[in-house]
Amino acid sequence: MKFKLLALAAAFAASTASAAVTYDENGVGFVGKGDVQSLFDWNNSGFQNNAEFVQFRFSSGSQQASWVCGGYNNGGNYVTHAKNESYDSVSGSVNFHPKQKNQITGFVLLGVNASASSATTFVSPGECVAPNRNWTEYALVEGSLTYEGSDPLLEVSIDGNAWYPLAITE
After folding, report:
1. Does residue 74 contact residue 136 with C-beta atoms inside 8 Å?
2. Spatial distance between the Cα atoms of 25 and 147, rounded to a whole number of angstroms
3. Count of CB atoms situated within 10 Å of the CB of 58
4. Residue partners of 161: CB distance under 8 A and separation at least 6
5. Which of 40, 43, 58, 141 lies deepest, with the highest CB count within 10 Å?
6. What is the SS3 string spanning the chain?
7. How confident is the model at residue 123, as a pLDDT?
């Protein structure tokens, strides 16, 4: 009985230790073998045989930045202007390569395929350009820059039809 409990504890520790999903707002990161393996209910052999069919896609969600610029106008009065900028989501397939020792141990995410990216930026968040060149000390009002948006989402598939979300585990 003691041996069975130790074996069960070791198996549980091994399965939880393999969980590793990390990624940033560009789809760069790592997905551990255990996360994909458990999602598709594969044993080690099943994972190794099917790893070549794994696909990842990523969406950063839409983003909104708001800030206030302030400066002195031609009349010497201090004036502020609220600024807003929206960013389209970055989305598309994720380039990756398998991390291997003797077997595949996970997937290194190299980021969203540039041709699939739909990001557009016109003004950098916090950028303040004076309405005319006679204005002075026109700059970002300290503490006014805020961001809002949806969380990035990484999904995995083996057939390109059914997609499953992967939560960040670290």
Report:
1. no
2. 13
3. 28
4. none
5. 58
6. CHHHHHHHHHHHHHHHHCCCEEECCCCEEEEEHHHHHHHCCCCHHHHHHHHHHCEEEEECCCEEEEEEEEEECCCCCEEEEEEEEEECCCEEEEEEEEEECCCEEEEEEEEECHHHCCCCCCCCCCCCCCCCCCCEEEEECCCCCEEEECCCEEEEECCCCCCEEECCCC
7. 60
User: Could you count the other beta carbons within 10 Å of the beta carbon of residue 88?
Assistant: 14
What are the residue ranges spanned by the domains of the chain? 19-166
User: What are the strands of the beta sheet with 164-166, ordered from one edge?
Assistant: 21-23, 28-32, 104-112, 91-100, 55-59, 153-157, 164-166
Contact present, 30 and 20 (Cβ < 8 Å): yes
- Which pair of tokens denotes residue 103? 């077997």
pTM of the model: 0.57
- CB atoms closer than 10 angstroms to residue 21: 21
Summarised one tens digit per residue, pLDDT across range 26-44 is 788 999 999 999 999 999 9
Give the pLDDT band of residue 72 (cuts 50, 70, 90): very high
